[in-house]
Prior knowledge:
Order of helices and strands: HEEEEHEEEHEHHEEEEEEEEEEH
CATH superfamily of the largest domain: Calycin beta-barrel core domain
Helix content: 10-25%
Number of domains: 2
CATH topology of the largest domain: Lipocalin
Strand content: 25-35%
Shape: globular
Oligomer: single chain
Structural class: mainly beta
Radius of gyration: 21 Å
Number of helices: 6
Amino acid sequence: MKSTLLLLSACVCLLSITPVSSHHGRPNFLYDVKKTLEGKITYYRWRNPHTYLEIETKNKNNETESWVIEAGTPTALRKLGWEKNSLKLGDIVTLVGNPDRNPDKKILLLDHVIREDGETFYVASRLRPPPPKKITKRLANLPSVIPSEDLSGTWMRGPNNYLTGSYYVPPSDWPLTKLGEEQAARFDRFDNPSYVCQERGMPFFTVKNYNFLWTLLDDRIVITQQQYVAIRTIYLNQDKHPDDLKPSLMGHSIGHFDNDGNLLVDTVGFPAGVKWGLATSVESSEQKHIIERFTLDEDGLGVTFSLTIEDPVYLTEPVIVNGTYYKVPEVPYETYVCDIEAAQKGL
């Protein structure tokens, strides 16, 4: 099994998918336009997968309007100094963010909010510049980044590391079977499983744009993810997968460190018919097989990885996806419970 892992991990010549253009999971927003709103908070939900609020404001005709404001995840907001009670119903606030491409839709992707007392709270986005480093004392008091020596610690996926080259877009250059092509052609962004709090499992888990906590134990690696209920376990002292595997979204993973310190992982044991289980709009089958290689940077602040994805029901040949992680402060996670109202609020 170890020799197989080494061979397959090295076969990058099969097909290399390199991420290209950035594409946010909310393509309906105008990222080059900033809009400012002032008003009273009438709705506020500190929930996963996104925090939302609504405000009442006046338009240029002095008419009252209600706007929906999308912020980040609770865990991401905590990293920027937010707390659940940073805002509350009835607060008068000034909000700056990106409006929807449709001017008739009153929804704003939040960049930052200013309370009446002048306190400013920012929202991070990979498509917008980071907030000022010294906003307030609360940001200065956040934990520092600690280098990793063995892949353990908290990581964030690097920019533009997507399965298919862009965010929530079907694969345009994958070697899909006829069935896979038919499913990709029927893509509907409103059919996203996350809108009904349904998970996709592997390989999407590896490239999700949220924090990962890696815990290295004697016989396994346990990976928890900020926006995921399931916990992934990579077993380190097993030469082969059990014969009586029970299929699961995460599959069964066995791994080992090679002589150069690379972590090589082999995962099988998936159920059939997982919605968007292979890529956006493309299902996966019980024949899905994923091989991963993780390499820790010398400074302990980054990881490079590759995934070799096989599924003969939907792919005519394997696909290889490359990506990176970068080290982030060890901030406690918000307990994840997907709230369907919050998941669908942006719709």
